[in-house]
Specification:
Elements: H1 2-9, H2 12-43, H3 47-53, H4 55-72, H5 79-105, H6 113-138, H7 145-172, H8 182-186
Helix pairs in contact: 2-4, 2-7, 3-5, 4-5, 4-7, 5-6, 6-7
């Protein structure tokens, strides 16, 4: 048990670097989401695609920061940090499946193969690795600390790639134009009202016909 705790302590500098990077990148992601929100106000749309491709990056950064904090805390054994990391990974797996469902349901952007890899497959792999690594170190297997370290760093790389990809898409392609609502498309053109006939008493009387003398 003491050997495993010392092995966990040997990773402190690694998680200080990864955790501080994830924390800083989380702040930058809020700037990215602000840019997307401004583009959304200007052009309309973007709500479903933001939930599928923008917001998960913040979760990935926060997950990397949380795992770094867990692995840097002064634990007395491997069971508590292992359980916490496994719980974090299980929550991430559930969230990755929710994001996958949002991606398939949104209709504003058609994902390509690269999007499926970086937005669906790799996050699911990273969180599943956290579940495996946390369960293993909870059972006194310190060798899987490499698995947790790799999964945490992968989450940071996923967030960086996805945030950059989102900014480049908004900058180059822009958000789709807002489609008119059905009520706007079906609204009939206004018809000019026919002039109402003037009352008889207000009509100008015609001059009487003159008789020849």
């Amino acid at each position: 048990m003491a050997e495993g705790t010392s092995a966990l302590k040997a990773w402190e500098n690694y998680y200080v670097i990864v955790g501080s990077s994830a924390g800083a990148l989380t702040g930058l992601q809020f700037v990215v989401l602000t840019m997307i929100a401004e583009a959304r106000k200007a052009r309309g749309g973007g709500g479903e695609s933001i939930a599928a491709f923008g917001s998960p990056n913040v979760v990935h950064f926060c997950a990397a920061l949380l795992v770094s904090a867990i692995c840097s805390a002064p634990w007395g054994g491997l069971v508590p940090p292992g359980t916490a990391v496994a719980a974090c990974g299980a929550s991430g797996v559930v969230y990755a499946l929710v994001v996958l469902r949002r991606t398939t349901r949104q209709s504003e952007y058609k994902p390509v193969l690269e999007d499926w890899i970086w937005h669906a497959a790799l996050p699911l792999l990273a969180y599943a690795a956290l579940v495996h690594g946390g369960w293993a170190i909870a059972h006194d297997s310190a060798d899987t600390l490499y698995v947790i370290g790799a999964a945490t760093l992968l989450l940071v790389f996923i967030g960086i790639h996805n945030a950059w990809d989102t900014v480049m898409y908004i900058t180059i392609m822009g958000l789709p134009e807002r489609r008119p609502e059905p009520a706007e498309r079906a609204a009939p053109a206004p018809v000019a009202a026919a002039p109402s006939p003037m009352p008889a008493e207000k009509r100008t009387p015609e001059p009487p016909a003159s008789f020849p003398r």
